[in-house]
Amino acid sequence: MVPQTAIENLKKHLRGQLLRPQDPAYDEARKIWNGMIEKRPALIARCNGAGDVVNSVKFAREHDLTVAVRGGGHNIAGKCVPEGGFLIDLSGMKGIRVDPTRRIARAEAGLKLGDFDRETQAFGLATTLGIASDTGIAGITLGGGYGWLAGKYGLACDNLLSADVVTADGKFLVASETQNPDLFWGVRGGGGNFGVVTSFEYQLHPVSRVFGGAVFYPLSMGRQAIPAFHEFATTAPDEISTFIAPAAALGGTPATGIAVCYCGDASRGEQLLARIRKLGTPLADLIQERSYVEMQSMFDDLFTPGRMYYWKSSLIRKVDEGFIETALEHAKGMPLTTGTFIYMQQLHGAASRVGISDTAFPRGGMGVVYKAEDTELGRFVA
Ligand SMILES: Cc1cc2nc3c(=O)[nH]c(=O)nc-3n(C[C@H](O)[C@H](O)[C@H](O)COP(=O)(O)OP(=O)(O)OC[C@H]3O[C@@H](n4cnc5c(N)ncnc54)[C@H](O)[C@@H]3O)c2cc1C
Fold first, then answer.
1. Which residue among 73, 103, 250, 336 has the highest number of C-beta atoms inside a 10 angstrom radius?
2. In the predicted structure, residue 145 carries a pLDDT above the cut 80
3. Same domain as 118, residue 227
């Protein structure tokens, strides 16, 4: 319903491309990580900078268009693609600058975790981000952001120092502790509802080698492994972040996998992780000293882009008999394919000590909490 002249006018003002359904690049541009998402926006602005975002937001206002913003395109439900609306696509905005002296990185919103880690690791620095290197820094930071460094350094949003934001009225604002602090509160865990973030400024920390990986036990050991894991996770120091997958397939064998990372001195890490590596006879033990980038991309094969994914998740405060029985019962019936599993991710340490109202991501006083997710290929639930 938008007049052709208005579309032509926007095109002239953008540095990036403006795509419509008849354009050859349109189909590729609307695809995201989850192959199950099949949505068709009316227009796609592939932005090259904050100016393109300001122009796009103003255009959407003038023509009353539904907007969605794409960072890395990893949201399971495909929330970054609006059916029949206007997609503001930031995936081409991948600039990053590290200031090694101040230990700060300024990164544009289209960057993915793998890009970010590789750049910051060249300086021996890192900050908390997720466990799959294809995930976007934008969605993960705006939604909280749990990863291997969370116990020691807090969530991704806890390491955010400032953000450049284009608000719904087309204004460009800086959000930080001192500038627009209410907006800064919202972008730390409140999701994408406060405006379009064009770049993020992060606090970095010295990290290079870590001690971590995964150990796999037979699925039949789940009844012993889950409580032992719970005890381990509850008493672990901040440097240890971990998750358990009570149903994971290891080369077609039903297994209980425990993934873990110790971000500190390797010999201390080896000592501390011995407990979790000796619960029984493992099917495989892949825990060792490795580079942080290697740790960050270790599970990428489980999350290949383009496959059909379906996930559900919820918070668990108590790992009791009922939970263990239910998880294992479901685990037994699951297909033994890569990418099909139930997993529980622990929230603890620095990530759990932030006050409940300090950011839009509430967790104060929670102690150790797990997020349980099951992931299945779409075809099994269709
Ligand atoms: C394989 C996989 C592994 C994951 N692992 C982890 C993990 O270890 N830890 C963790 O915490 N999470 C994890 N997640 C969840 C992930 O962090 C979220 O799905 C996140 O939203 C993805 O960010 P994105 O930029 O790639 O997503 P997108 O799909 O591009 O965006 C997600 C949401 O944020 C909005 N948005 C995106 N960019 C902007 C922006 N610049 N300004 C305003 N709004 C914006 C979108 O409109 C959408 O609503 C994982 C997800 C997947 C698929």
1. 73
2. yes
3. no
